[in-house]
Amino acid sequence: MTTRIEIDHRRTARHPEKVRRPDNPIQRKPAWIRVKAPTHPIYVETRNLLREKKLVTVCEEAACPNIGECWSQRHATMMIMGDTCTRACAFCNVATGVPGPLDAGEPQRVAEAVAVMGLKHVVITSVDRDDLDDGGAGHFAAVIRAIRDAAPGTTIEILTPDFLRKGDGAIATVVEAKPDVFNHNLETVPRLYPAIRPGARYFVSLRLLARVKEMDPSIFTKSGLMVGLGETREELIQVMDDLRAAEVDFITLGQYLQPTVKHAAIDRFVTPDEFADYAALARGKGFLMVASSPLTRSSYHADADFAALRAAREARLAAGD
Ligand code: SF4
Questions:
Q1: pLDDT tens-digit series, residues 15-40
Q2: Which residue has a Cα nearest atom 8 of ligand 1?
Q3: Contact at 8 Å (CB) between 70 and 88?
């Protein structure tokens, strides 16, 4: 039997840069965060297909609490360019280290899985690949094109890294492949970047979103934040204003959950009523779509949300806004 100590060791070994950090005890989750263990037959079917195609998912790598619900509906978020990230964010459970070379067969395998699963909408994300000249932009574009060929009826949402120091060319490469939704998460408020997202820069992330919209206004843009990390309501409001100034269409807000004792501590559990308050604030700022709840993740319910997003844009255009 695997002991708790062995599990903790295995998990922290995924994050060599965090091993020497003091432990942050994991707080007991409130009743509104509990999720059921995955047992549905379609969950197993989804898992088997992903294994067969040798695909990595952020659902597993990030230890997402929604995996039972999502995979039971054949909704998995595939993570391309390997399972090892070149950044070392304090909130993230994806392994840190030196990644291997890109797998040239991956775009085709992802596309085949999307076609076999018969997905209406797919979300593709990746690890950060600061080691690549284009940050992986060309690989993202190849995956989008392969899905368009294999599953032309599937709408495509990408959740990308920030392409820090990779220039406008990297952003243009992805935009020219025409994903339906371009998502890049700000993750937290700017004051907390040095502690939570030390390898990233708030205004670089914001500018990426703005540039996507400038390059192709037909692409929906989306961004998400985790709350419960110590941010204030005023700071969140400022981020909402910044996102609207960048013409971002869709904001997602969800509770930060601490993956291991070596990750950033939860400051507090935000209540469902506060999430409803944040949602009302965001709607008031003019976002086309808002998802705000304790278990909201950027890819949670992404298929239904995409349909609603498209309908919201059409309604706004019809109203002459
Ligand atoms: S919310 Fe996203 S990451 Fe989590 S299980 Fe669902 S699809 Fe995967």
A1: 888 888 889 999 999 999 988 778 89
A2: 59
A3: no
